[in-house]
Write a structure and sequence with these properties.
The complex is a heterodimer. Chain A has four domains: 146 residues, no CATH class; 114 residues, no CATH class; 245 residues; 138 residues, no CATH class. Chain A is built from 21 helices and two strands. In chain A, a hairpin with a 2-residue loop joins strand 1 and strand 2. Chain A is elongated and about 200 Å long. By secondary structure, chain B is an all-alpha fold. Chain B contains six helices and no strands. The longest helix of chain B has 14 residues. Classes of the chains: A mainly alpha, B mainly alpha. Chains A and B meet through helix 1, helix 18 and helix 21 of A and helix 1, helix 2, helix 3, helix 4 and helix 5 of B.
Chain lengths: 845, 98
């Protein structure tokens, strides 16, 4: 019994939760539908070229819807914090639904009015253009021009093929109007085709409607270019003739003058066409310019919208007319005030919703026949009406009193639904064809999305590859610059040191030369002084000897003459002369010694001076060398900085180029999908939205990118946590001194995620010294594996073992488990651990 | 009633229970509502109750007194607090899910 009760409780708990989810889903679906309808209305009104005021109001609605969504998102963390449940979302959704509805209703009403008008107008215009084609053919036939209706249709097709911004109606009207305007010129089909193309470019160039462009171009042709003056193009007979010659239509002016009237008219037409073509040539080139893609896209969207409304108008004419009838009916009983207003609003919302749901069914290929359409529209109408009325009147539709008669609320709802259901009738064969055509576009859309996704994937892969390559190039370049700078700095330092050695050596040699020179000079001076001394001594001795000999000779004579006086005088004279010679000799010796001393002093001074000069010169050379070295270093660093800046700028430019090319590629792709897929406005928007969300920066892409980052971070944390579990307590204590024991694994998230860090896991490969930063976003582990040795090291990588230095051969894994944990988990984990140990050991053999 | 951040053994237990019903690959693009809707349609009442017991640490009887919104809210917050996707992936990565 107890078990039964417990099972009941369990079922009850699950059912309660499931019930809430179901209710929330229902609420969210209703909210999404309304937002979707508002988005579609916005896109459609923008395409239809609605008034600025309406577009602004719709934009405001979309902004409001966005605000609501943002607020709903904000509820979640707030609810978590308060612990009162994020599921108060239900109330928010209800409020949001009401607010959005109230804000959107008025605008949607206006949109419906415009869409109805446009659709009916489009049908009329289509019929008119077809009628005009017939009229044109008749008129041309009467004028003797051999252009058939098929030719006119072919001209229109050709025109539309080249200019996607021209709608079916405009193309047909252009062909027929141009034919009528120029029938007197008897143009060929080819010329007519060219002319309508010129008119299309004319419309693009001057920003005028296709109708007006056809009239201007046609009139210009039949009035010999007079109409062109309004566009600032001066054309007269002389200009036409000159252009005919310049364009090679005639050989020369003389040949032109010799033409017959009919030939001249032909040449004039061709020359005028050439002039007009030249004036719109820039536009033709601009059409390939991505800068004007927006203008083109707008034109294309307008054309697509017109084509769509033409088809939709045919399909939904009965529904639209019924809706108008319904509106009239309800407005007649306006006196019921707010309740009636609510009914009208709910009716509008339901009609719009049903209409778009049905269009979606068609686009998704769920509707293949008129029966499918009738069923789907009826079903959608009923669903949408019930949903809208339930939202507008949560307590049921109140009874109404009209002219004294009370109408039950349920009756109003049923009548409305019945009224709307009537729209299933009245589908013609034409309608069925159009539905088939619309349905076929669903396949185009699916295929277009698939193809485009593949293309985008390729483009993204290319972009990512190019980006990585650019980054690698930049890194290599920066590293090369760093290496080059290092080498240049080393060269500069070596040169500087060599120069210092040279300077010192030169100085040393110079000092040596000076000393040697000085020494030689001293020796020379001393030697010369000595030689002079010897010579002078010899002269002195000779003079003494001569004096003595003369004295002896004179003394001998005096003795023979017995002249005592003479003897005495000679002795005195001799002594005097001898003393004089000795004195002179002494003076000379002193003089010589003084002269030698002076010479030696001069030599010494000269040496000192030269040594001082050499020292000064050395000092100057050293200062110059140091200055040169500093300048060289600064120059090298500056050059390196410039090269780095250049490399960085090139890299930034390359990234910008890559991104621009990618964006252009994407824009071109999206445009081509719209054009080639021949999608209508709604289909084009579906494709565009789907692909835009898929593109980088889009909602899906961002979610995916963030998720990927998150998963990578988790994987890195998990990979790091295995060895970390060995001594996590110790590890924590080591990292946080003084907090031993404060680590609480039980209350900590075992896999913390730290966004924003650079090293969030992954593998690096380096073939040169590389600086790596990691751990800046939290706990991270790095492991380096040499892979230079072929086979052995590579095997480590693919066996996911890591390895390398520091593994120690054994991996110790401690897993703490509670008693309640099933044995299977332990077995599995131990098997894995064993596998790791086995493999590691094998690797170490 | 508050959802708790589980310790390793309890987290593994939770992963063992929910791993049978959640394919981490296929739920990546789903909204929270779709994810919960799908899970609650597949999960057995006993497994759901076991998950709630783990997440809240309370008695079954107490849980049953909560409103549907409170039950769902506590469950969802429990999944969020315990990072269920990464928990399941971790559970598989370290080989417990094999």
């Amino acid at each position: 019994m107890n078990n039964l009760n417990q099972t009941d409780i369990m079922i009850q708990i699950l059912l309660k939760a499931a019930g809430v989810v179901e209710e929330l889903k229902r609420q969210t679906t209703a909210l999404n539908k309304l937002t979707e309808a508002a988005d579609k209305a916005k896109a459609a009104v923008a395409g239809v070229g609605g008034t600025e005021k309406t577009a602004t109001q719709l934009n405001n609605t979309a902004t409001s819807a966005q605000k609501v969504a943002t607020n709903v998102e904000k509820i979640e963390p707030a609810a978590n914090k308060a612990g009162k449940g994020l599921w108060s979302l239900r109330n928010v959704a209800r409020t949001a639904l009401g607010t959005l509805e109230a804000m959107a209703i008025f605008l949607i009403t206006r949109f419906i009015g415009q869409a109805i008008t446009k659709s009916i107008e489009s049908i009329k215009q289509l019929e008119l253009s077809l009628w005009k084609l017939q009229a044109a053919e008749k008129s041309l036939s009467e004028a003797g021009v051999g252009i058939t209706p098929k030719d006119l249709l072919s001209i229109a097709d050709e025109l539309q093929k080249q200019f996607s911004f021209i709608s079916d109606i405009d193309a047909k009207k252009a062909a027929s109007n141009m034919a009528l305007l120029t029938k007197d010129l008897k143009l060929t089909k080819e010329q007519m085709t060219e002319l309508t193309k010129i008119a299309a470019l004319w419309s693009f160039e001057f920003g005028i409607a296709m109708d007006a462009a056809v009239t201007e171009v046609g009139n210009a042709l039949v009035t010999n270019g007079r109409g062109l003056k309004d566009r600032g193009i001066q054309v007269d007979a002389a200009v036409i003739r000159e252009n005919a010659v310049n364009a090679g239509l005639v050989a020369n002016a003389e040949a032109y003058d010799n033409l017959t009237a009919e030939q001249k008219q032909n040449i004039d037409v061709l020359s005028l066409m050439d002039i007009m073509q030249k004036n719109v040539k820039a536009s033709m080139e601009d059409m390939n310019n991505p800068l004007i893609a927006v203008t083109m896209a707008t034109g294309e969207l307008n054309a697509a919208w017109e084509n769509f409304t033409t088809k939709a108008g045919t399909v939904f004419r009965p529904a639209l007319l019924a809706l108008l009838k319904g509106l009239t009916l309800y407005l007649e009983v306006w006196q019921n005030g707010f309740t009636m207003l609510q009914i009208v609003i709910a009716g509008f919302v339901a009609s719009l919703d049903a209409m778009f749901l049905t269009i979606d069914d068609i686009l998704a290929g769920r509707i293949k026949s008129s029966e499918d359409f009738a069923k789907a529209f009826s079903k959608n109408m009923e669903t949408a009406t019930k949903a809208a009325f339930t939202t507008a009147f949560p307590g049921g539709v109140p009874d109404l009193t009209v002219g004294g008669t009370t109408i039950a609320g349920t009756s109003i709802l049923n009548k409305y639904i019945e009224n709307m259901k009537d729209t299933k009738t009245g589908l013609s064969e034409t309608t069925t064809d159009v539905i088939k055509e619309l349905g076929a576009s669903a396949e185009d859309i699916a295929k277009a999305i698939d193809d485009a996704k593949k293309t985008i994937d390729d483009a993204l892969a290319d972009l990512e590859f190019d980006r990585v390559e650019a980054k690698i190039d930049l890194d290599i370049k920066l590293e090369d610059i760093g290496i080059k700078l290092g080498q240049q700095l080393e060269d500069a330092e070596r040169n500087y040191k060599e120069k210092i050695v040279d300077i010192n050596q030169k100085y040393s040699e110079k000092v040596s030369d000076i000393n040697r020179d000085s020494s030689e000079k001293r020796q020379d001076a001393i030697r010369k002084a000595h030689e002079d001394e010897v010579n002078e001594e010899r002269d002195f001795q000779n003079k003494l000897l001569a004096l003595k000999e003369d004295f002896l000779m004179d003394l001998d004579d005096a003795l023979h003459a017995r002249d005592a006086r003479q003897v005495l005088r000679l002795i005195r004279q001799y002594n005097l002369d001898k003393a004089r010679l000795i004195r002179e000799r002494a003076d000379k010796k002193a003089e010589n010694a003084a002269e030698l001393a002076q010479n030696l002093s001069d030599i010494n001074q000269d040496r000192e001076r030269r040594l001082a000069d050499a020292a000064r010169e050395r000092k100057q050379d050293l200062a110059n060398a140091k200055k040169d070295y500093a300048e060289k270093r600064a120059e090298l660093k500056l050059n390196a900085e410039r090269e780095r800046a250049d490399a960085k700028r090139d890299y930034d430019r390359k990234l910008a180029d890559l991104q621009r090319h990618f964006n252009e590629k994407m824009d071109a792709l999206l445009r081509s999908i719209v054009q080639e897929g021949k999608l209508n406005a709604a289909g084009a928007k579906m494709v565009y939205d789907a692909l835009n969300a898929y593109r980088p920066g889009g909602a899906i892409w961002n979610t995916w990118a963030n998720y990927l980052k998150y998963v990578q971070a988790i994987q890195a944390a998990v990979a790091g946590s295995v060895p970390g579990t060995i001594n996590r307590q110790d590890d924590y204590a080591l990292r946080h001194p003084g907090t031993a024991g404060s680590y609480k694994p039980v209350t900590q998230n075992p896999f913390p995620y730290h966004p924003g860090g650079y090293a969030e896991g992954g593998t690096l490969l380096a073939n040169r010294p590389t600086t790596v930063t990691f751990g800046e976003g939290g706990l991270e582990m790095a492991r380096f594996t040499p892979i230079g040795r072929r086979g052995r090291d590579t095997n480590k990588i693919f066996s996911n073992l890591g390895g390398g230095a520091g593994m120690g051969g054994n991996l110790k894994l401690q897993v703490v488990m509670s008693e309640g944990l099933v044995a299977e988990i332990i077995d599995t984990s131990l098997k894995n651990v064993t596998s790791v140990i086995e493999t590691v050991r094998r690797e170490r053999r | 009633m508050e959802a708790k951040v589980l310790n390793f053994p309890d987290a593994m237990k939770l992963a063992q229970i929910l791993g049978k019903y959640i394919d981490t690959e296929s739920i990546k693009d789903k909204s929270l509502l779709d994810f919960l809707d799908e899970l609650l349609k597949k999960i057995s009442p006993p497994d759901y109750s076991k998950s709630m017991l783990l997440i809240t640490g309370e008695q079954l009887g107490d849980i049953s007194l909560l409103s549907g919104e409170e039950i769902l809210n506590t469950f969802a917050i429990g999944l969020e607090k315990n990072k269920i996707i990464s928990l399941l992936e971790t559970y598989k990565t370290i080989g417990f899910g094999q």
